[in-house]
Each structure stands twice: as C-alpha cells, then as structure tokens.
Specification:
alpha/beta, 434 Repressor (Amino-terminal Domain), Endonuclease, Chain A, 2 domains, 12 helices, 6 strands, elongated, Helix-turn-helix protein, DNA binding
Length: about 290
C-alpha cells in the first residue's frame, strides 16, 4: 500500500520547501540529524520530506533554526504547517473515506483544474446517488448496506465542490463502455445518463466520449487524473487509483507524459456536442 501523504496543497508545499532547504545547503539527511544532536532519526526527517508525516511545531522550529532561515521564511513555513494540520470535511465520515483516498479528496478540493480519463464508470463528481450505490454494491461486496450508504454519502458530499464560486474546471474523457454498461439496471442508468448530459457545461465541465471505433489508444493502461493548482509554486500531479491503494506521480517528466496522453485523447474523442448526442441516443434505447 502506498504511504499516506498529507491531504492538502499546503502539506505538499511544506514538504517540498523542507527538502529544498536541505538540498540548497548540500546536506544529507544524516548531516541534518547530526546537527540536531540526534533529536530525530533519519527516517523521521525523510517522512517529513516525503509528506508522510507533519513535523510537530517544536520540531519544525528546531529544523528551521538548523537551516538558519529568515524570520519571514520561518513564519511562512510555520503557518503552512498549521494550515496543513487543519482537518478536512471528510474526517467526520471516518473510515467511509479510506486513508489512501483522503489525499486525493483534499487535493481535489484545492485544485484549479482536474483532467481525468476513466474507462469503467462515470466520475464520482458526476454520479447520481443510485448509480454510486450500484457501483459500490458491485465492486465492494464485502461491505454492509450501512457501510455502502456511508460511502455514497461521502460521494454526494464531494459533489458540493461543484457549487463553489471558484470550483475547478473539470475535463472528463470517458471510454464509451462507461455510458453503455447498465450499472444498477436500466432505470438507474437512464437517470445517470440524463444527469451526465445535463452536467456538460464547457468550459466549467467538459465531457467527451472516446468511441469504440477508434480502436487502440494511449489511455489503455488505465484511468488517471491530472490535478492543477492556482499557485505556480504548486506543480501539477497525476493521481492513479487501485483497489486498495493510490499513487501520486509528481516527477515533471512523468507528469508531462500523462499530459501528452490526455491531450491526444481529447483530440481524438468525440466533441461535446457529439458526446451529448450519443448519450441522448443511448437514453432513448434504454
């Protein structure tokens, strides 16, 4: 399972700054631990830089003292740490939001744009409650009805993101199978497709279908999401999801490869108008 990272842009920025401060000085983690007079072990400093753990205020102050940062920089980083510790809305839902998914929910809430390719189901932000329930029932057969309802409630709560004045721009590319597979039966699927068609509202929400007739395409390795953020200091990242874990791709060259793939997919997918027409045709056939 992938290690849990702090679920905020601020936490991501803090870990990046801590690593930058050390590398600018040409120091190894061993040397930082030595300068701290062994206040920490190597793995602790490493986890701070990887975002797997936030430093306690006292530890952060000592670390910044070792790096001899300016007063202004110290206050900025201490504020980042305080803000990164603030609990998001998803915490009240407990284990209905798996730890490995919390990072994505937090980053999604602060993104300025999300570009996603999905091959199997309608993206969570555009699902109806009945469709979401059917997805969970079909893929998580070990969960009780109560647990499934809690997860559906989380998914509906996530969708409040779309109501914000400065909601992120969303661009979804769907494999044609997504709109043809009858998840939850004809009634549920018909309602879901109607909801999907109404949601299309470029440039705020763009939806394109990748038709079967295109054959092989660059997205066949699986679904992915590219998240962009308002501040230039916060670089794009790619989110990959698996059955019991998730992975964040942050190396610039690798992120750029996913951008190239996404750009190819949206260039070859149906236009939004043709996508809407296909959805209406399928609804009429159900």
């Amino acid at each position: 399972m992938a290690a849990k990272k702090n679920a905020t842009v601020r936490g991501r920025r803090l870990r990046g700054e801590l690593r930058r401060l050390r590398e600018e000085r040409g120091w190894s983690i061993d040397h930082v631990v030595e300068l701290s007079e062994n206040a920490w072990v190597n793995s602790t400093v490493s986890r701070w830089e990887l975002g797997e753990r936030l430093p306690r205020p006292a530890d952060l102050r000592l670390l910044l003292e070792i790096y001899e940062v300016t007063d202004e920089e110290r206050e900025t980083l201490l504020r980042l740490a305080r803000e990164a510790r603030q609990r998001g809305w998803w915490h009240v839902h407990g284990d209905a939001v798996p730890e490995w998914f919390q990072g994505f929910v937090g980053l999604e809430a602060e993104a300025s744009a999300v570009c996603s390719y999905t091959s199997e189901f309608v993206p969570g932000l555009l699902q109806t409650a009945d469709y979401s329930r059917a997805i969970h029932q079909g893929s998580l057969r070990s969960l009780s009805d109560e647990e499934i309802e809690r997860r559906v409630a989380v998914r509906m709560e996530r969708q409040k993101l779309l109501e914000r004045p400065h909601a992120p721009q969303l661009w979804f590319i769907l494999n044609e199978a997504v709109i043809r597979r009858h998840v939850g039966g004809p009634g549920v699927m018909k309602k879901q497709l109607g909801h999907l068609a109404k949601a299309i509202d470029p440039p705020r929400i763009t939806v394109q279908v990748l038709p079967y007739e295109l054959g092989a395409h660059p997205g066949m390795d699986g679904a992915f999401s590219i998240l962009s953020f308002p501040a230039a200091i916060d670089a794009d990242l790619v989110y990959l999801e698996h059955q019991t874990s998730s992975l964040y791709v942050e190396e610039p060259d690798e992120v750029e490869r996913y951008n190239v793939v996404f750009n190819h997919l949206r260039a070859t997918a149906l236009s939004t108008d043709h996508t809407s027409s296909m959805i209406r045709e399928i609804v009429a056939q159900i």
